[in-house]
Amino acid sequence: MKTRCAWLTTDPLYLEYHDEEWGVPEHDDRKLYEKIVLEGAQAGLSWITILKRRENYRRAFDHFEIEKVAAYTEQDVERLVKDAGIIRNRSKIKSAINNARRVLEVREQHGSLDAFLWSFVGGRPIFNRWESLKQVPATTPESDAMAKALKKAGFTFVGSTTCYALMQAMGMVNDHTIDCFRHAELNGAEE
Q1: How many CB atoms are closer than 10 A to CB 36?
Q2: Which pLDDT value is given to residue 1?
Q3: Distance separating alpha carbons of residues 167 and 3, to the nearest angstrom
Q4: Whole-angstrom Cα distance, residue 180 to residue 176?
Q5: 12 Cβ neighbours under 8 A, 6+ residues apart
Q6: What does the DSSP assignment read for 62-111?
Q7: Fewer CB near the last or first residue (10 Å), C or N of the chain?
Q8: What residues act catalytically?
């Protein structure tokens, strides 16, 4: 039996997310934008609530095709507010659309969303060595800097705690505890 991070539940969707996605370096702009939207939607809710709705989000937001979402109108906001498959919070929906528009601007200035986000860790993952969940921070100087820069660029629902969760999700940091089988796998070495 594999040892996993203590924050997990036994939900198969959660296990799959932990084992195959969380902490894996991501560089695709569309997938990074999806993670920004989902982390913002999660604010005040549990991650499993969002994870269970992720396929609905993909459907509702045109599979997170940035240009399409950036072109959404008030009619799209109204359509999304009525979509029971997603979190129907008007502010979070408007944030997703706004953030798509901001991604387009970031691409113009930095070449890609990927280059912009990864610049906060020098382009390389940070490999932490936490022994327990209690040691994992909610924010770091890097997430503080990312949040400040994203807000300055006009993004919303991107506080430091959300940015740190984003950094974990996109593999900018490996916060699997050292007893978790994924810690060594993601570090690329046996421990």
Answers
A1: 28
A2: 81
A3: 23
A4: 6
A5: none
A6: GGG-HHHHHT--HHHHHHHHT-TTS---HHHHHHHHHHHHHHHHHHHHHS
A7: N
A8: 17, 39, 47
- Nearest by Cα to 25 from 189, 191, 187, 190: 187
- Per the listing, tokens 């089988």 go with 181
Q: Count of CB atoms within 10 A of residue 65's CB?
A: 13
Can you give the pTM of this predicted structure? 0.95
Dihedral of alpha carbons 166, 170, 174, 177, sign = positive
Q: For 174, phi and psi rounded to 5 degrees?
A: -100, 100
- With helix as H, strand as E and coil as C, how does 36-66 read? HHHHHHHCCCCHHHHHCCHHHHHHHCHHHCH
CA max distance for the chain: 53
List, for the chain, all residue ranges whose pLDDT scores fall below the cut of 70.
189-191
What's the pLDDT at 191?
Answer: 40
Residues 6+ apart with CB under 8 A from 71: none
